[in-house]
Amino acid sequence: MYIPEIYKNENQQDIQNFIHQNGFAILVNQTDGKLWATHIPLFLEEKNEKQFLVGHVSKENPQAESFKANDEVLAVFSGSHAYISSSWYDHENVPTWNYLAVHVYGKVKIHSLDESIEALKKLVDKYEAKSEKPVRVEDMSKKTLMQARGIVSFEIEISDIQAVKKMSQGRDDKNYQNIVSELEKTNDNQAIAVADEMKKNRNLQG
């Protein structure tokens, strides 16, 4: 994706944390000669000093069959975003949008059934971690686990990661602080999350 130099995020730990916290992604590829997108959870793991995204789609999804002929994919992870009104500046300018996003490119490899079960265990464990009574794949009956035959599980070997953090970096401290204050007044969760990110970026208090 196009990212102006000022908005590029190349902090690898920051990017990994972002993917972990915003794991519900859009997986895009060419399917039957056209662009195809599926909304699915993906999780990041490392093996042999390489990074992979792991997930699954339904066997009924045409994208699953397309992996055999076209293994190049793009996973899009979106974070907090908010409209920035130019009325918040002390000078005339245009409105804009602040946002966080990561694009991950790579090649798909289809899992075996055993690998699919292992991937499901990791995915469920991740999202059940905060549950009062966590569900575990290991505790499920064979009948329930048979449903795993209805999915195509895979891993994506990552070839490139592009991350954007557009948080009004070009603004002076006065206007930057005013943007934060105006975002906090909105009572909108997304806007407040952007304000928090901006405060973290410049070590602002409050």
Word description of this protein:
The radius of gyration is 20 Å and the shape is elongated. The longest helix has 16 residues. It has one domain: Roll (Pnp Oxidase, Chain A). It has a 7-stranded antiparallel β-sheet with strand order 2-1-5-6-7-4-3. The protein is of the alpha+beta class. α5 runs antiparallel to α6. It is built from 6 helices and 7 strands. Helix content is 30%, strand content 36%. The two termini are 34 Å apart.
Helices, strands, pairings?
Blueprint: H1 12-21, E1 24-31, E2 34-41, E3 43-47, E4 50-58, H2 62-66, E5 72-84, E6 96-110, H3 113-128, H4 142-145, E7 151-166, H5 173-185, H6 189-201
Antiparallel strand pairs: 1-2, 1-5, 3-4, 4-7, 5-6, 6-7
What key attributes describe this structure?
206 residues; alpha+beta; Pnp Oxidase, Chain A; seven-stranded antiparallel beta sheet; 6 helices; 7 strands; 36% strand
